[in-house]
Amino acid sequence: MEKEKYHHLLQYGFLLLITILSVFVVMKSSKALLLEESKKMFFTHMKEGETKVYERVLEEFIPLKELENQDEKSVIFMNHMVGAFVPTRAYVKENASQKTELIIGESKVPDYFLEGEETYSEEAKQQLEEDEKIAASTKKTAVSYTKKQLTDFEFLKQNFYVVDSTTTITKKELNGEKLLNKDLSIKKNTQEKDKPVILIYHTHGSETFADSRPGKKEDTVIGVGDELARILEEKYGYQVYHDRTVYDMINGKLDRNRAYNQAGKGLEKNLKKYPSIQVVIDLHRDGVGSKTRLVTNINGKKTAKIMFFNGISRTAKNGDIAYLKNPNKEGNLAFSLQLQLAANERYGDFTRKIYIKGYRYNMHYKERSLLAECGAQTNTVEEVKNAMEPFADILNQVLKE
Fold first, then answer.
1. Distance between CA atoms of 284 and 298, rounded to whole angstroms?
2. pLDDT (tens digit, 9 = 90+) per residue, 121-168?
3. Eight-class DSSP state of 208
4. Which of 10-14, 22-26, 286-290 has the lowest mean pLDDT?
5. Measuring CA to CA, which residue among 330, 375, 312 is closest to residue 164?
6. 3-class DSSP state for residue 21?
7. DSSP assignment of 231-283, as one string?
8. Counting beta carbons within 10 angstroms of the beta carbon of residue 178, is it exposed (0 to 12), middle (13 to 18) or buried (19 or more)?
């Protein structure tokens, strides 16, 4: 059976390649006809039920519709095709030998193709819940660590991280001495208003809180981003650009899986427009059990806890994900760890453990890229906005010269 599946997948891969070459050959013909004929050729060899899966794969990775308004130059065209075809080949290669359900017959494109929500494995959920129970029963005061502890791989992993069961992290990556000695300071650039150094955006801009008012953007994570931007500018003197786009609303519908693709396009546009940007912060809120409350007390205010999230482009089953390369992974890990230490030293239990998962989450654009889960759906808007004061403080501690 496995051999038969592998054979079918190779057939589909070959058909896809033929489709690409055929499209290239007839490039100068009518684009409307081109789209229809390509799909017809590809789907003729498929069983009923499989076409929906591959139609979405085709739209996602062979974006023919997007080519309608582009210049018909072969280089541009083939760049699209090659960049699109590689992930499909990687999926076939890595999964054909697995004794698991393959994409054939599934009702949707597998998560492997898309960077979805920051979901947790069951083991990780249990660990996070246990950590919160311990934190609730024993108030954690400000704490510092010895150099010996911070350069011990097992100590770091146990005390600072939750590693999702779908991925792994190595001693080489979690080299405490190297990560903590990395200089992440930046110049504030207080004079030039049109040259921001910090970008705040929201892949899941529609996320709300326990008492959010319907239709009020200021009560979503975007409103929380407004508050962080205000404090960083007014109190610490950083030039900040806040992208308030709701990337998880696509064609009027909520789509959190494709949101990372949409946000990536927005990121590239903003980084091109503002090359001065050195820090990129993707602000989210977490999703937890209805009885879980991520709250601490800082300076007499009920304050939501935050959690940093790192993607390392690796699955435990198949190893490094070749087409999700991240040249800034070391910088990403250094940034979150240095922020975590600053938070521990200044605010005790303000931050939860750093979460490690296998995808990339658009963190490859800058080494000072950060995904932060600020509170959860059970927190109030006020609690989460209160968290932006200590969050801005620890950011300044790491970024200041």
1. 21
2. 666 556 666 666 556 555 566 788 999 999 999 999 999 999 999 999
3. B
4. 22-26
5. 312
6. helix
7. HHHHTT---EEE----TTEETTEE-TTTHHHHHHHHHHHHHHH-TT--EEEEE
8. middle
The number of C-alpha atoms within 13 Å of 346 and in the hemisphere containing its C-beta is 18
Domain(s) labelled CATH 3.40.630 in the chain stretch across: 122-399
Q: pTM for this structure?
A: 0.70
- Which fold is adopted by the domain 122-399? Aminopeptidase (3.40.630)
* CA distances, 354 to each of 145, 327, 346, 351 (Å): 17, 20, 17, 8
Element (H, E) at 303: strand 301-304
Chain segment 276-335, per-residue pLDDT in tens: 999 999 999 999 999 999 999 999 999 999 999 999 999 998 899 988 999 999 999 999
Above 50 in pLDDT, residue 92? no
Give SS3 for 294. Answer: coil
Cα–Cα distance, 312 to 15 (Å, whole number): 32
d(Cα 207, Cα 248) in Å, to the nearest integer? 9
Instruction: Decide: residue 196, CB within 10 A, 0-12 exposed, 13-18 middle, 19+ buried.
Output: buried
Please state, in angstroms and rounded to a whole number, the distance separating the CA atoms of residues 173 and 63. 35
Give the type of residue at 362: N
Q: Which two tokens stand for residue 317?
A: 């089953």
How, if at all, do strands 253-254 and 249-250 pair?
A: antiparallel
